[in-house]
Amino acid sequence: MNVVTPKIRMGFVGGGEGAFIGKAHRQAAGLDGHFELVCGAFSRDARNNQDSGAALGLPASRCYNDWQHMLAAERALPADQRMELLVIVTPNHLHAPIASQALSAGFHVFSEKPAALNLAELLALKAVLKSSDRLYGLAHTYLGYPMVWQARKMVRTGVIGAVRKVMVEYPQGWLSRDVAGQGNKQAGWRDQPEQSGLGGCIGDIGTHAFSLAEFVADQPIEQICATLGVHIAGRQLDDDAAMLFMMAAGATGVLIASQVCAGEENPLKIRIYGDKGGLEWRQEEPSSLIHRSLDQPMRILRSGVGQPWLCEAATRRMRLPAGHPEGYLEAMANLYGDFASAIRNQVEGHDAPGVPGIDVGLRGMAFIEAAIANHRGDAKWTALVCHP
């Protein structure tokens, strides 16, 4: 007799009609059948909120006008009906306040990054998390790709030797014009410090490059030397960044993040070199991992179920045979899948294994603040400090 595993009841704050990332989260969460959407506060616009809920098959009674009312009403429902996980896909300034109250109300939280607007706010959120018995995860989606895990495993097992050099870049072109001035809402709030935080490009995509570098190299970045730029008149926050960095085990690196590289789409890329060889992974071609050896021909490892040369961590995150592309939604679905396993297995602590947690958020925030401080100051190098 087959035992039916109940789906985890999920609620959303943000992600109403017209929002890209909310739809991506719902599709990713539904890909493996672990979750059921039961409620939401999708938009501050009442009509958009109700229309979004109706389109998703929710009753009007579970489409709340605001997230505060949603948390209170859901908490009052019987345990077998209320949501169990809250997904936060709002502008940045709401991430920490909503997460803090949701954790205090007894709900697990999966949030878009960044986790907070600044380091002080994030440390306060960590204190709330520590006093709860809930799980917290961050949507660093690129850390869900199988071949990223394969690269990390090859670094850890010494396939490329001692890491010497890391080069990571994330160029986009969508802010090459003043699209915020033309009414683009996604660009608009991202250039408002009170909604986006201290960094523009450095916070939006620079943190993805930063976390990818630390994850694959398997060592933290300790110091950076950064320059930030603004290329559109009237823009308040950076749209371009470049920096050198030094890592804990001696590797040096270069990080470039820019949203004014005209014509570029989303070509996040990392190259990492040791004393025996190197690895290269590109987000726009995520099924391939290039392995260069000091004394052997270059080879390209390809993702796919059943490939015997791939590590278990990579294989476990694949769904299809080689040659059947898996991409962004599947990578995000891997994070949701690991989060679901942690909830069902009642994992101790606050981190779901395989899912970036609060400490990854702290590292990213320290990175943003160090980059800005270095750019504004006279010091050649600025250390990343996660705690005051």
User: The biggest beta sheet, please?
Assistant: 9 strands, mixed
Order of helices and strands: EHEHHEHEHEHEHHHEEEEEEEHHHE
The strands making up the biggest β-sheet line up spatially as 13-12-11-10-6-9-8-7-14
Question: How large is the share of residues in beta strands?
Answer: 15-25%
Structural class, by secondary structure, is alpha/beta
* Number of separate helices: 12
Structural description of this entry:
By secondary structure, this protein is α/β, with parallel strands linked by helices. Helix content is 34%, strand content 21%. The chain has twelve helices and 14 strands. The strands form two sheets. A nine-stranded mixed β-sheet has the order 13-12-11-10-6-9-8-7-14. The chain has a five-stranded parallel β-sheet with strand order 2-1-3-4-5, sandwiched between helices. Helix 5 links the parallel strand 4 and strand 5. The longest helix has 19 residues. It is globular and about 65 Å long. The mean pLDDT is 95.
What attributes characterize this protein structure?
388 residues, alpha/beta, Rossmann fold, Dihydrodipicolinate Reductase, domain 2, nine-stranded mixed beta sheet, 12 helices, Gfo/Idh/MocA_oxidoreduct
Task: Give the gist of this structure.
With 388 residues, the chain is an alpha/beta fold.
Secondary structure layout:
Layout (H helix, E strand, L loop, with lengths): L7 E7 L5 H11 L4 E7 L4 H10 L11 H10 L8 E5 L5 H10 L3 E4 L7 H13 L4 E3 L7 H11 L6 E9 L13 H6 L2 H4 L4 H17 L3 E9 L10 E8 L4 E7 L10 E6 L2 E6 L5 E6 L5 E4 L9 H4 L12 H17 L13 H19 L5 E2 L5
Helix pairs in contact: 1-11, 4-5, 5-12, 6-9, 9-12
